[in-house]
Design a protein that fits this description.
With 374 residues, the protein is of the alpha/beta class. The chain has 13 helices and 13 strands. α1 crosses α13.
């Protein structure tokens, strides 16, 4: 028997690689001769760099950048095994997890550090860059990123505005004369799993602002400021960005990557499955085991287990999903290619206990699954 193990991370508990290794250990308890293939997955958010570097035998590049509050931090990006493709996580420089709850303020936070990661890759000559924009702390429309790459967002006096969202309503013109020249020769792919527009009730500020620290009043102000910035972009480039699907991703970073870097939006799971050659590995397997921290009805909207199952069903391969928790309406996934779902929780326990012991619990449930099958 050959088993493909392709899970996402269990957020705040185990990386995708650690999840895959725990599942493998559980399988080997039953029969050490079962062949296992581990392909740690991600959907474009945190863990994407690790997953793709691991799967392609690439490398990690360390870079010093500014965090969302312009403090110096150590960050990174990945170079894939082809030696040509770079993968960047916005969360590694401009992520919500880099801030305490008290520090979260989308009026102030900036995407400048993400721009620094892109700049470093461009200056090293890379011409194919994948950017995962999940987990951001920002609502600045990518203004900080543009500034880090040499673009200038100017007010009525011809002065550059600040790096956060606070001054977006002051932007009256955009000067790209000093934008990094490497951008012209580079192809940018944006790992994006949402279709939200830049502004409005389904836009960046209203949908994602609250989780980044915005109250109801701030949300309205942020939406107005992004609206002004988006209108200036439209007037400058002649594109309709305000209601463009995906422009509101990552606090408007989607809009900036499309407008300033000519980025192409693509589902994160699609990028990862392509770069890891997952389809060929599934074709050659007898069973597929996937998973993530919480499996529920939202999993069907581009998350890892759904993406893995969609490919597996093309080749009539059975798919089992393992989750930290099984949420509301998860049974809809039985219609989407997942044959069975197992929770790691094997007795009454707190969330903290489950997270702390996730590795051992994963081993146990993997063992129980395989004992049924052989």
């Amino acid at each position: 028997m050959k088993i493909l193990i392709a899970p996402d991370s269990f957020k705040e508990s185990l990386s995708a690689k650690e999840v895959a290794m725990a599942i493998e250990r559980g399988i080997k308890r039953v029969d050490k001769n079962i062949e296992t293939i581990k392909v740690p997955m991600a959907d474009g958010g945190e863990g994407t760099v690790e997953s793709l570097v691991e799967a392609t035998e690439g490398k990690i590049v360390s870079v010093k950048v500014k965090d969302p509050l312009m403090r110096d931090i150590d960050s990174f990006y990945g170079v894939l095994g082809d030696g040509k493709t770079v993968v960047i996580e916005m969360a590694a420089a401009s992520g919500l997890d880099l801030l305490s709850k008290e520090e979260r303020n989308p009026m102030k936070t900036t995407s400048f550090g993400t721009g620094q990661l892109i700049k470093d890759a461009l200056e090293k000559g890379y011409k194919n860059i994948i950017i995962g924009i999940g987990g951001s702390a920002t609502n600045d429309g990518g203004a900080g990123m543009v500034a880090a790459l040499g673009g200038k967002l100017l007010d009525s006096n011809g002065e550059s505005i600040g790096f956060g969202a606070e001054d977006l309503d002051k932007v009256e013109s955009i000067d790209l004369s000093e934008l990094h020249k490497g951008i012209r020769e580079c192809e940018f792919t944006i790992a994006c799993d949402v279709d939200n527009p830049l502004i409005g009730e389904k836009g960046a500020s209203y949908i994602f602002g609250p989780q980044k620290g915005a109250d109801k009043t701030m949300v309205k102000v942020l939406d107005r400021k992004l609206g002004n910035f988006g209108k200036t972009i439209e007037d400058t480039f002649g594109i309709s960005i305000l209601q463009y699907p995906g422009a509101g991703a990552a606090g408007g970073m989607g809009a900036a990557l499309i407008s300033f870097l000519d980025g192409k939006l693509e589902r994160g799971i699609s990028i990862v499955t392509k770069e890891t050659n997952l389809e060929e590995k599934i074709k050659d397997s007898d069973l597929v085991i996937t998973g993530e921290g919480m499996i529920d009805s939202q999993t069907q909207y581009g998350k890892t287990p759904y993406g893995v199952a969609k490919i597996a069903k093309k080749y009539d391969k059975p798919v089992i999903a393992i989750a930290g928790g099984i949420g509301k309406d998860a049974n809809i996934l039985y219609e989407k290619g997942i044959d069975s779902i197992f929770s790691i929780v094997n007795k009454p326990m707190t969330l903290e206990e489950a997270m702390e012991n996730a590795g051992f619990l994963l081993e146990d449930v993997a063992e129980r699954i395989v004992r049924v099958l052989i």
